[in-house]
Description:
By secondary structure, this protein is an all-alpha fold. The protein has 3 domains: 5-106, MazG-like (Helix Hairpins, Orthogonal Bundle); 139-218, Helix Hairpins, CATH 1.10.287; 222-269, no CATH class. The protein is 72% helix and 0% strand. The protein has helices at 5-11, 16-27, 35-39, 42-61, 65-88, 94-107, 110-113, 122-137, 151-164, 172-189, 195-215, 220-243, 254-269. The longest helix has 24 residues, at 65-88. This is Nucleoside triphosphate pyrophosphohydrolase. Belongs to the nucleoside triphosphate pyrophosphohydrolase family.
Amino acid sequence: MPENPQNDLCTAPGGGLPRLLAIMDRLRDPVTGCPWDIEQDFASIAPYTIEEAYEVADAIQRDAWDELEGELGDLLLQVVYHARMGAEDGRFDFHSIAERVAQKMVDRHPHIWGDDSRDKSAQQQVQDWEAAKARERQGRTLDGVALGLPALMRAVKLQNRAARVGFDWPETVAVLDKLREEAVELVDARDTLTADEVTEEMGDLLFVMANLARHLDVDPEAALRAANAKFTRRFEAIEDALATEGRTPKDSDLAEMDRLWDAVKSAEKIPK
């Protein structure tokens, strides 16, 4: 049987990106490929793409540099997967994807590859970038804010878009006033509202919280991830403290666990 050059590339270490592209071509081959890979489409792969992006962010947040290379590779695989499916449909391929983003980077950096002055602050460059994106959209103000984004992140992006055309509270105190108003409305009406109405009011409250984060120049997604990590760390410390006595949280009560929580919290604040 004649040798298959693609197989040689797939199994040869050191092949880099061409090797990865060849592997995906083989996996998606309708005759000799992997049945699972062949069955996938854009919609079925999209959740994995989102998951891999979060795993990259998680490794960075944990300073897990020994894991980051692998996580970035998993994310790259997702791009290669979508590129292969796009090529099969005659829509695009990996080369056209790379060329498109390369041209975008050149177009959006006229201070590097054009006549604009490089004497700009980082903030001014961000504003110029957003202005370029707005010109490219040529549609409604909120067009192009991806539906698949995490809700808090999408809320901030929607609010930023609206703010650029003047629809925004001028001062943070106004956001706090709205926050108190929404919280009071939710608590006062919780016994008279339907479940759907409570959900709607809760959504309004979270939307204002995202706006407060934006006014304070805080990434609400990052803030909530940090809060989740802190809660996990402190609750596990409670479990560890109870375990020294052969007990679990089910063997304790709220008052005891609250005392243990306060002890963990105080210990974290002691300078090392």
